[in-house]
Structure formats: C-alpha cells, structure tokens
Amino acid sequence: MSTLLPISIDDFRDHARRRVPRLFFDYCDGGAGTESALRGNVERFGAIKMMPRGPRNIAHRSSRVSLFGRDYAMPLGIAPIGLANLFWPGTDIAFAKAARKADIPHVLSTAASTMIEDVAPVVGDNGWYQLYTSKDDAVTEDLLSRAEKAGYHVLVVTVDVALPGKRRRDLRNGFRLPMPMGPKFALQLARCPAWSFASLGKPIPRIVNLERYAPASSAQSLAAFMAAQISPMVDLDQISRIRERWKGPLVVKGILGPADAAALAERGVDGVIVSNHGGRQLDSAPATIDALPAVVAAAGERMAVMVDGGVRTGEDVAKALALGARFVFAGRPFLYGMAATGSGDPAVEVLKDEFDRVLGHLGCPNVADLDASFIWRDDKGHRERQTA
Ligand SMILES: Cc1cc2nc3c(=O)[nH]c(=O)nc-3n(C[C@H](O)[C@H](O)[C@H](O)COP(=O)(O)O)c2cc1C
Fold first, then answer.
1. Which residues contact 373 (CB under 8 A, 6 or more apart)?
2. What is the spatial distance between Cα 15 and Cα 341, in angstroms, rounded to a whole number?
3. What is the pTM of this model?
C-alpha cells in the first residue's frame, strides 16, 4: 500500500479506507448481497487483454470525443452519486468543478446532498441531470423543470432502483439517515480526524433536493426514505412520457439486456448506460463489460451506448470503447480520489493520463479508431484463454 502520493485509483481507495468513517466508506464502497456483481464488474475488465499495433506514429494523440452535439476532452464522465458528501464533505461541488475543469460530464443525482440550483452554475454545460422518477408525477415534473431551469440539457433516467438493494454492509453497520450519533460512530469519527475536520461547520448531508416534497423524511431510514420516494412503476410508457416532456438528449441508465435497449431505441431514447448500479442492486447481475457488446449490437446506430461499473484504470476505459461503448462513466473511483486528496481533480487526472498512455501503447493515437481489433483474441476468436 502506498503511503506516498497516490498514483492510481487503487491507491486512492487505500487512502480513503483510512480517512473516511467506516459507516460512510462502506456505504460507498459496498455492494448488494455477496458483492458478486461488484467484484465481477472489476474482475471482468481485468480478464480482457488488448492487442497493440505497431509500429505507429503516436506523437500526436487525441482523446476528444463528440457526444450529443458537443465535444468532451475524453470519453469518461462522473456517474451520479447519491449522498456523495457523506464520503467526503463538499464532494458534489468538487466533482462539478473537476468536471468543468477537465471538460468531462458530471451527472448530478436526484439523491445528491447539494441543491440542483447550487451545482448547476458551477458545472456549466458539463452537467447532466439524473432523475429518479417519483411515485407522484407532480414531483417528477417539478424535478424536471428545476433541472431544466437550472440549465441542465442532458437527462439521465435511472431505472434499476425500483426497489432498494440489500446492502449487507449498510445493514450490519446500522447505516441510517439521520446519522446515528452513538459511541460507535463517535469512535469512527475520532479515528478519522481529517474527515471530522473537513466536516466542521458543514451541514449534515441529506437528500436535500427531495426534502421539499417529503418534509418528514429526515426521520426515516435511508432505505425507507428512498423507497417512499422512488417509483417502482417506471416502465416503457413512463419513459415515452418523459421523452415527450424532455427536449434535450434523453439517456436511460441501468440497462443490461439487448431487448430492453432495442425497446428504448424505439421510444426515441438517445442513449443508454449499460449499468448494474455498481453492483448495488441485483447481486447476480452480469458484469457490465460482458453485457455491453450485445447492447451495442441491438442499439446499432440508433442510440449512444455507454457503460459504467468496475472502471478503475484508463485501460478499462479503452477496453469499453474497443467493445463498442461511445462513452464510459465511473462512480467510486472519483469518490476514492476525493477522500484521498480533498479534491475532485486528481482522480480525473490519473484516469486521463492513463487513458492517453493506453492510446499510445496500443498504437491508436485517435480515440475514434479504437475498435474491436484492439481486443486480443485467440485463433478461435475467444477473448479469453479457454481452460481444457
Ligand atoms: C455511493 C454510491 C451512490 C450512488 N448513487 C446513485 C444515484 O443516486 N443515482 C444513480 O443513478 N446511480 C447511483 N450510483 C451508481 C453509479 O452512478 C454508477 O452506476 C456506479 O457507481 C458505477 O460503478 P463504479 O462505482 O464501479 O464505477 C451510486 C453509486 C455509489 C457507489
């Protein structure tokens, strides 16, 4: 474990583990059930090997990509994170600043702990808004019109949280909102002086954007609060209604199957994020990098297919692109970086630097040329060595 300057997302995680109170570290780091989906996302990236080409002139490399009518500095964005400020105080705003500085997207969660109206001016047009549809259509409409007024252009509707995931670490730790202030928690705070110091004078993180609709919420557990708010009824018809309502690009997040992707393309959706919510919902879900190619095939040219889950290096970003993703998102890597350094920038810089290096190492100086020919396959076309 590095005790010097963190140089990788894994280093950031090691640092975060020591700096963040256990209750909050586990809330962000953990997954559902046995955490098989969470591990699978990371491990399946590791199983893919890439095939460099050369010799090639790689003196001038470009990571810039275009999506939904605008350019971004690289094909990587910050995924929506609910209650991110628990992991480290000020995370929502720090992510918004980092995204704007690096010219990548930042997706603000419905369950953020900073007001939409406060994040929007910081992030500018690097901001996307993530919606959890509410049981009450008037709440959904109000969230959409707030996001629109604040200047958000791209809307991401998350569809894999119709029921909360069973996250064992949170249940064991007694993770609740509001925070339990017993001696166990006080001990965790004492062990994490940097976190405690950074939190001084800051409001206790809450799901602030929803409070106006459910003022009694803060007395409930997080699971009960989210369950009370999020609609278990989001279906294709609701997506069609949102499609009619939202003028800008519409993305659906939380898709794993090609048939679902095809149905969404038919409803006029502009993009999907292949995601299992970072392994926080269905523990038996496939690794997202394994689910990606079939979704890409089903979507064809109709939608931008993106992916998240398990990205920990710039090489992972390249693998996802080579397997057909137009764009990639990561969640925890940016949280780890934030807790390790107190800023959103270093994790973005680490991944940007690694991604630029992989373009060079592959002999693929232009990101637009990254395709399946850069994925190593054996003479039978298998991506992995077959045992027996
Ligand atoms: C602490 C935490 C909170 C999250 N909150 C949300 C959320 O509010 N909305 C959402 O669509 N996804 C949420 N996600 C899922 C992420 O957007 C993303 O799908 C996932 O983190 C990707 O996996 P990775 O962490 O391995 O990169 C959350 C993930 C984490 C770790």
1. 51, 53
2. 9
3. 0.97
The residue whose C-alpha atom lies closest to atom 8 belonging to ligand 1 is 82
- Determine the Cα–Cα distance for residues 345 and 12; give it in Å rounded to an integer: 12
Which atom of ligand 1 is the closest one to the Cα of 329? 27
**Pocket lining: 164 vs ligand 1, CB cutoff 6 Å:** no
Residue 283 counted as domain residue: no
Active-site residue identified among 153, 277, 361, 382? 277
Q: What's the structural domain count of the chain?
A: 1
CATH number for the domain harbouring residue 202: 3.20.20.70
82 Cβ closer than 6 Å to some ligand 1 atom = yes
For ligand 1, is residue 41 a contact (CB within 6 Å)?
yes
Residue 207's domain spans which residues?
A: 9-154+161-250+309-374
Q: Taking all residues of the chain, what is their mean pLDDT, rounded to a whole number?
A: 94
| Each residue's pLDDT tens digit, 329-385 | 999 999 999 999 999 999 999 999 999 999 999 999 999 999 999 999 998 889 887
CB of 130 sitting under 6 A from ligand 1: yes
